[in-house]
């Protein structure tokens, strides 16, 4: 059987990579490599044109001012990104990147930043920053938890058929009010969890890799099991922390 292949596009890593969010791309790379899946990675930077045919899009977090530049760029590529979403490409956005996957982000004392709207979610800058450890319940994975670290002032509210990715156990998540964390629509996921996110949530990484393989090969491909002892030790360490 020929080698399985996947393509990942890392969106604007020079602008949105706060708190080492590039660690998520490294997890995709290693977990594919360990299964002999050939993962091609392309970086898209300011001025680059996005071409269709990608299986996974990743976008990290950043400060408001970096989000301004990226918001403009994403609007230039909005239609191809929406087409890719409708073609079941997997999207993973972290914090600021998550916010720009929604309808808009309204920072403090600044112009509203337009998002690409693949998540029916709106974000408004709040009066305080949420900074601390987060654990949340996610019903469709084992373990049934995801963990990470949040640092945002944005308050995100979900609408329509965009559903929460998880429900908060410890922390604030989307807005510190409705006990939701993150968002999902089709294969697009957004989360406030830095850390970076995937190294301590290998089960979520594999879930996304399986979705990407399904999109590319139209088949539920079983991933060979990996020894995640260390990753899950790190997961449980955060799970047992208070905010
Ligand atoms: N600037 C956004 C906020 O403060 C996103 C921050 C981030 O990506 N950590 O909500």
Describe the structure using short key phrases.
243 residues; alpha/beta; six-stranded mixed β-sheet; 27% helix; globular; binds glutamine
Structure description:
There is one protein chain. By secondary structure, the protein is of the alpha/beta class. It has six helices and twelve strands. The strands form two sheets. The protein has a six-stranded mixed beta sheet. Strands 5, 6, 7, 8, 9 and 10 form a six-stranded mixed beta sheet that branches. Strand 7 and strand 8 (145-158) form a beta hairpin. Helix 1 (23-33) crosses helix 5 (202-217). The termini are far apart. The structure holds glutamine (GLN).
Annotation field: number of helices: 6
The topology string of helices and strands comes to EHEEHHEHEEEEEEEEHH
Widest β-sheet, arrangement of strands: 2-1-3-4-12-11
Rg, Å, rounded: 17 Å
Q: Approximately what portion of the residues adopt beta-strand conformation?
A: 25-35%
Mean pLDDT across all amino acids: 97
Helix content class: 25-40%
Which runs of at least 5 residues are low in confidence (pLDDT < 50)?
none
Q: What structural category characterises the helix and strand content?
A: alpha/beta
Q: How many strand elements?
A: 12
What binds here, in terms of ligands, is: glutamine
Distance between the termini: 48 Å
Largest sheet: 6 strands, mixed
Shape: globular
């Amino acid at each position: 059987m020929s080698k399985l292949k996947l393509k990942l596009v890392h969106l604007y890593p020079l602008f949105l990579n706060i708190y080492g969010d590039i660690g998520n791309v490294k997890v995709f790379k290693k977990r594919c490599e360990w299964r002999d899946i050939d993962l091609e990675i392309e970086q898209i930077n300011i001025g680059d044109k996005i071409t269709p045919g990608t299986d996974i899009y990743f976008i990290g977090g950043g400060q408001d001012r970096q989000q301004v530049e990226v918001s403009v760029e994403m609007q230039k590529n909005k239609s191809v990104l929406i087409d890719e979403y409708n073609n079941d490409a997997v999207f993973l956005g972290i914090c600021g990147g998550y916010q720009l996957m929604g309808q808009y982000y309204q920072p403090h004392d600044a112009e509203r930043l337009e998002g690409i709207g693949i998540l029916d979610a709106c974000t408004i800058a709040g009066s305080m920053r949420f900074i601390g450890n987060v654990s949340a319940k996610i019903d469709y994975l084992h373990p049934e938890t995801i963990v990470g670290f949040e640092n945002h002032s944005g308050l995100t509210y979900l609408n329509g058929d965009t559903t929460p990715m998880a429900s908060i156990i410890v922390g604030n998540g989307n807005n510190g009010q409705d006990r939701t964390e993150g968002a999902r629509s089709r294969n697009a996921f957004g989360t406030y969890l830095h850390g970076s996110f995937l190294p301590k949530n290998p089960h979520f990484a594999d879930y996304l890799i399986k979705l990407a393989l399904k999109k590319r090969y139209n088949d539920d491909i079983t991933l060979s099991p990996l020894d995640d002892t260390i990753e899950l030790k790190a997961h449980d360490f955060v799970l047992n922390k208070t905010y």
